[in-house]
Amino acid sequence: MKDSSIDPACDRAFGAATAAEPSEPLMWLNTDRVLYVGLLGAPSMRTFGAYSLYLSLARPHRICVEGGRWEEASLSVVPPYVPHRIVSVDRMICNVLVEADTVRAADLCGALRAGRGAIHDPQAVQSLREALLRFRLGSTRRYASTADFDRAFFGAALPARPVDRRIAQVLARIKDDPNRHFPAEDCAASCHLSVSRFLHLFRAEVEAPFRSFRTWQRARSLLYFVTRNSNLAAIALDVGYPDSTHFSHSIRQIYGLTPKSIFAGCRRLALYGSGAAALPRFAFH
User: Fold this and answer.
1) pTM greater than 0.85 (yes/no)
2) Between 195-206 and 210-220, two packed helices, what is the crossing angle to 10 degrees?
3) 72-97 burial, b for 16+ CB within 10 Å, e for fewer?
4) Tens digit of pLDDT for each residue in 149-173?
5) Residue 120 Cα to chain centre, angstroms
6) What is the largest CA-CA distance in the chain?
7) Are 33 and 51 in contact (CB under 8 A)?
């Protein structure tokens, strides 16, 4: 199945680039966005703390959101903290993540705002494939800012989510150092709030429980390490997990894949972007 309204010239160019570089997985990321083009594997149920956009590189994928019916599409979207499964006959897929703490649902645009599950929008498929093609053929493969990334993939910078300044400070600390343990009691004290009031305010401002956000940020930080040539036990400690068992269980709950499978699939990954201050820079181009 092919989107009939996609511009033939763009489609041919994208197909040529894909055919010329069939085994070139890549990822660009900062603390607010992720662009991943690489192996999908065979994930079980996965739950990301971000708006997740899946774009097929060739043949359509199939997606099941929250145990609902399976749908087939070249483009699909899953809201934050919503469990889903995805399968594809193609080995590689494009996945874009937009962090939920950075935007409000009402301010989303295009395919991100279309709902959940399969999105049947040939123009959106064309636009995203063009953006991906420009990135892949670019000389530097860099975006100076989150706003530049948004403009490239969504046509405009997404409006920043307004957040209470106290909660914004907590968000910044966690995202700057996601491998560190941040007890709710300490965060509440820094905001001059009781623990119960802090947890209530955090959920109201971020639309996610404090623990869920913290768990997601720690698991997300694994992405900065996927090109690292170290044993998984050492990486588990670097990412902030107390032991390998906890590490493996938590990562599988988030990504639907074990850490071993993730690292095996990223052996040839080219990693681009900028990360949190506490994370290693040696992995980046």
Assistant:
1) yes
2) 60
3) ebbbbbbbbbbbbbbebeeebbbbbb
4) 999 999 999 999 999 999 999 999 9
5) 21
6) 59
7) no
